[in-house]
Amino acid sequence: MADKELHIVVFPWLAFGHNVPFLELAKLIAQKGHKISFISTPKNIHCLPKLPENLKPWLHLIEFPLPRVEELPENAENTLDTPPHLVPYLFKAYDGLEEPLTKFLEKSSPDWVICDFAPHWLPPLSSKLGIPCIFFSSFSASASSFGLEWFTGKKSVGFAEANRFRDVYTRKQVGQSSQPKEVNRFFETLKGAQVFATRSCMEIEGEFVKSLESSSGKLVIPIGLLPASPEDSNDHNWYTMLNWLDKWEKGSVIYVSFGTEVTLSDKDFTEIAVGLELSGFPFFWAVKNRNISGGNVESQDWIENESKRGMMWRTWAPQSRILAHKSVGAFLTHCGWNSVIEGLQVGCPLVMLPFQYDQWSIAKFMEEKKVGVKVHRNEHDSSFTRDSLAKALTSVMSEEEGKYLRKAAQEMSKIVGDKQLQLKYVNEFVDYMKNNRPAYN
C-alpha cells in the first residue's frame, strides 16, 4: 500500500505569500508521481506561475468561486485586493468555501488534506470524513514557536526584545494589545490537525522545531525551506532591470522590497526614501501598490525623476533573480519568510525592517545568526528614522564592517541553497504520508 500513489488536497489561505510555498510544496510532491488537488479561487489560481508541462497530469488546479460578501471590494479574492481593515470580511468569504470543499472531499476521498492556518473548520471536517489533516505553517519554526508562546503563555525559545516591539507595533496598528483573530485561527487549526508541518530545516532552526513539538503536543515535521523555482527568464521587463543593474559595480546595489502585505505610512515611506539617499549607495526599490497608504507622491516622484542612484520599480519584479545579480550587495527587507529565504539562498546579507507579526522574530533570529542588521527603532513607539536606516545600510555595505555579515550569509546559503538537502525533507514528508495514509485507501 505504501507504493500506491497518494491523492492530496492542498488548501492555502488567500494571500500571495502563502500561495507560493504551498504551490512549491505541491509541485515537489507531484514530481514524485502523486496526485495533488490544489484548491483556491479563480483569481488566485490565475495568478499562480505557469505549471511545467510534466506536472500537469499530477497537479490539478481547482477553482472554487469565492462567496460574495457585501463589505468586500468588487472582485476581491485575496489580501492584495483587500484593504487591511476589510481583511476580516475576506476571512468570512473564505469560510464560505466550507460547503463546496466538503462536497469535494466527500466525492474524491483523498488520502490527506494539507491546509493553511485560516480554515479552523477544516481539521474537524476532514476528521469526520476519515481524512487525516496536516497543518502546514508557511511561517518559520522560530516565528511559530514565538506565536505559541504568545497564545499559550508557555515559554518557548522566544525573544523578549522581539516580543516588546511586536506588542508596541500591534497596539499602534490595531489600537489594542489583544490577540488578532488570525492568531486564534492558527491555533484552532493546529489543535485539530494530526500533524504540524513547518517550513524549516533542522540545520537552521533545529532548536525551534523541537520547541514546537514540545509546546504544541503534535508531531512536527520540518519539510525544508521550499526555495522558489527559477522565475521566467523571458519576461521583457527583466532586460530593462538587467541593463540598470549591470551598470553598477559588484556588490554596490541595495535591493529594497517590503513584500505584498506591508502598507507603509507616508512618514515611513519618506524616511526610507531619504535614508536610502543618505546612505550614498545605488538602490533598486520594488514598490507594490499595497506598500503605499496615502501615496507620498512627492517622495515617489523625487526618486523617479531626481534620484541619480535610485530605481523605483512599480510592477512585478523577479526578486530571486535580482538578488542573485552580482551588483546586489544587500537586501533591505521586511523579513517575510519568503523574502528571507530568497535572500539567503544566494548569500545576500539583510538589512531588516520588520513591520508585522512573524517578521519581528525572524529579524531577531537572523540578527543572532549574524546574517544581517536590524534598523534601530524607538522602543516606545517602534518608529525609525532616516538616519537609523542609513546607518544600518552603511554597516552592511561597508567593506570592513559588512565583511563578517557577508561571510555568514554566504555560509548560510550553503544550507538554504542546497537543493538536495531541502528536497530530502520533502521526501521524508512524502514517505510519512505514504506510510500513514488511511487504511481504507
UniProtKB/TrEMBL annotation:
GO terms for molecular function: UDP-glucosyltransferase activity. It comes from the Eukaryota. Its EC number is 2.4.1.-. It is an enzyme of class 2 (transferase). Keywords: Glycosyltransferase, Transferase. Belongs to the UDP-glycosyltransferase family. This is Glycosyltransferase. It comes from Vigna radiata var. radiata (Mung bean). The lineage of its organism: Eukaryota, Viridiplantae, Streptophyta, Embryophyta, Tracheophyta. The gene is LOC106754259.
